[in-house]
Write a structure and sequence with these properties.
globular, 76% helix, mainly alpha, 19 helices, disordered C terminus
Length: 359
Amino acid sequence: MIRRQSHTRGMKELRLWLAEFLCLSALCTFSMAQQGKVCVPDKTFAQVGTLLEKQDYQTAKRLLRELESCPHLSPVQRFNVGWLYGKAHDSSDALKIFESVREDVPDRLTHGYALALSSFELGKYQAAINALTALRSGGVFDAKCADLLGVSYSKLEKYQDAYAVMAENIQQNPSNPYGYFNLIALFVDTSEMDKAAQVANKAVAAFPQSAEALSMRASIELSQGQPDDAYRDFAGAAQLAPQAPDPPFFMALVDYRQSKYDEAEKVLGSAIASGIADSDLHYMLAECVLRADAANTARVLSELDQAIQLNPNSVPARILRGSTLLEAGRPRDALIDLKIARDLDQTPQRDTQNTTYLL
């Protein structure tokens, strides 16, 4: 009996041990499965990249949050998570991650620039300046850093400091077009249009195949009352970048200001037919149709409908559609657009190129 009790007890202990082992094995398997789901960095990075191309920022950030919780990420992988947060327009989370890894991850230049860029995007311009000047003092500085440092000084209205950095950047990095573009913008901000025009001429000479250089010079020419020169440069930019919406928009604007509404319609219609999907092109076309044939309300509204479909926050399109609906005897519909426009109350985006909308 004693022997049997011992055997029974032994079997019971064995069963308990086996149960415990199986339980631990199950937990381990579950843990590994969970890790397999969350911690596959390369796969997740590829998925996030695809989502960013589609501008699906919310889904991208959800995947990044899942990946961020993985305890086995290398420092470089963690840095890459932060970089992708920044590309998903979440500079706050990006900055937190950059600050959590060593300053030499992946290297001091890239890390310092990432810190500065995230700070800049958050409006922390002095923090961006501090990060960049630290790199500069350490002899780790490139053209991108100079671009960001100059613009950061400009944001704080430290124009002399901004000019010094930008001028030196052009001298040391003559193949960097953004050095020229930033200096042009600086002179525009300080209302030194003649100097802006001089730099724009140098930019076009240095980068004759740059649509942006031509567009910037054209914007200055337009502001200085040189519509023919502006039109020529915008047309050149349109040839160099046929899918860019700005050149045809401003070509039409030049025609519009000269009451050449039919010519403006041709430019806009051609751009839209080429496949450029841009809210402002439809808005401008509506303006031209309205001036050429005020009775063609149906077409005006059709263009404005497309403009608002492409950009529901377009204040000029909302205002014009509201006023057109009001004239057409549809006050309730008009009120909806006008109220939305008032609530948005934002400056039209293309004002940044030294031009104004028609309203």
